[in-house]
Structure formats: C-alpha cells, structure tokens
Give the backbone structure.
Amino acid sequence: MSANESPAGQARTQQAATYESAFLKACRREPVPHTPVWFMRQAGRSLPEYRKVREGIPMLESCTRPELITEITLQPVRRHGVDAAIYFSDIVVPLKAIGIDLDIKPGVGPVVEHPIRTRADLAQLRDLTPEDVSYVTEAIGMLTRELGSTPLIGFAGAPFTLASYLVEGGPSRTYENAKAMMYGDPELWADLLDRLAEITSTFLKVQIEAGASAVQLFDSWAGALAPADYRRSVLPASAKVLDSVAGYGVPRIHFGVGTGELLHLMGEAGADVVGVDFRVPLDEAARRVGPGKALQGNLDPTVLFASTEAVEAKTREVLESAAGLEGHVFNLGHGVMPTTDPDALTRLVDYVHTQTAR
C-alpha cells in the first residue's frame, strides 16, 4: 500500500486484499493458497492476555467498550496467525441492548430475570436499532483499520438458541419449557422466533455495514431438535435471518452443536458455509449437506489437550476427510476450551498452513 495513496484509496486497496484472502476464497469455494484457519472462541479465556484485560470487568460490559472489544478481537490474530478474526461479543448482547433484564453469571451463563412464557411477555422484545448498539459500529471501524487484509467475522445467535435462553430463563439440558411452547403453543412460538429473527437480522446488518467481511449464525443448541421439528418450527426463522443479509454479498456461515442429523436442513436455510461439529466426518457431512456449500470444521477441541503428535495425526484425518470438498475452512468442531494451551493453537495453525500449502 503506497504511503502517498489517499485514505479512500488505501481503504479500497485494503478491501481488495481482504476479498482475496484465503478465508473468503474458501467460503466462496474458490482455489486457495492454503486451507484457512480460525477458531470459535479464539478470543477468550484460553489467552492470558485476555484474562488480564478483562480483569474486574463484567462480560456484558466488556462487550460495550469499543477499545476493549478491539484489543480482545486482535489478540488471537497476533498470537496465532489465524486467517480471520471474529468480533468479540456475546449472543445475548442484542437482547441486553433492547432492555431485556439479563446477566451473564460466571460459571452459569446467561440468566434472564423474567423469562418469556406468555404472549404478554413478548412485549419485552422491541425492535433493535443501530443506535442501540452504536459501540458495535465504532468497534468494527477500529478493527477493520487494525486488521488490514485479515477478514473480520461478525456473528449473532440464531432465533432458536436465543429463544431457548429467553424461555428457560437460562442454560438448560432439556429445554422443557422451550419445547413445551414449541409443541403446545406453536403460534406463540412462531411469533417469538419471528421477533428474534428481526432483532438478529438488524444486529448482523449493523456489523456488515460497519465492515464485517463475513457473518456466522450460531444455533448452538439446535442439536436438541429432531429434524421434523427443526424444519417446521426453527428453519423458517433462521432462513429469514440469513436471507435478510443475502444482498450484502458477504459469506454467511451457519453452525450448531450436535447437528449431524440437521446438516442438510441447515444448508437449506440459506448459508454459504455450513459449520460441522466434531461428530461427523467432513466427507460424510458434505454428502448430507449437498453440493454448492463450503464446509467449516471440525477437529474435536479436546484433541488439543493431547500430545503434539496426536494433534497432528487427528488434524491430518480432518484434512484428508476434507480433501474433496468444494471449499473448506479449518476450525474446531466447537469452541476453544478455557484451559487449552494457547501454544497448541498456534502450532495447529502453523501445521494446517504447512500441510495444505499449494
């Protein structure tokens, strides 16, 4: 980039370099110089520098400070040399922004003071506006200047996963209240997910318009659903979200945990890239998803606690399974675990890049 180039020209040059990055090429199913790597939860508790800057700051507060968001998002890019950054936030941030009384309790997760159980409770869910999350726009502006040609991934929680927290009042293993509403009052359930789809769509649009190069929709708990229930009661809302940002032309990634039986439906919802957890080999996942989609994944996060030799052996299995894919973004099959050795992640990035260099 020329030092004499105007700011606008520099921005165009940076955007062009980002567009040609290995990560975005893989998402578009184009030839890549190497298999790109990033990790879900790469910015977070596994990094000592993260724990240091977050010390004494509640999670949701940290998600509203642009300078802190920028620093935390950049940390794994500096340390690991990953091919993409992911915006540091939490899936409940847009809910907090519209006034939902919730908090993230350490060791528990999001806890909602007044769960949504009746039609009257839907009044808690007003529309999200860009002004509600102005700190997102500010932080992404700072990030895109710092990241240079490294793409930034925006993200949001999918309607089902947000609904599960709102109806249960917090994390759940059984989702009995959410499923009771889904089965017993399908009209209320549909209205709840539709409102959440609108909120989520706005949250993703804010991130894209601020400069995010791709977005990921996390349906973390969709694996609790049977395929017929997912198709009937969840897919329409996820499809609405993904369709709402289709016109921006940025890759859309869709990921859930334990979703091996839902992979075709998740692809059907409209994603360009389907994230695969560690339970299904990528070649089988490709068969289930069908043609026309890139895949993301899928090393078991616990493998990183084994020896370097074991990590490399399991990584080769993932890469061999991905050999025939139309496009592949290497990732873990779930998020980085808090006690993971950061050096193991750095070695993994280097290993994937070396093994797949073309």
Remarks:
- The mean pLDDT is 96.
- The beta strands are 85-86, 102-105, 109-112, 152-157, 214-219, 252-256, 273-275, 294-299, 328-332.
- The radius of gyration is 20 Å.
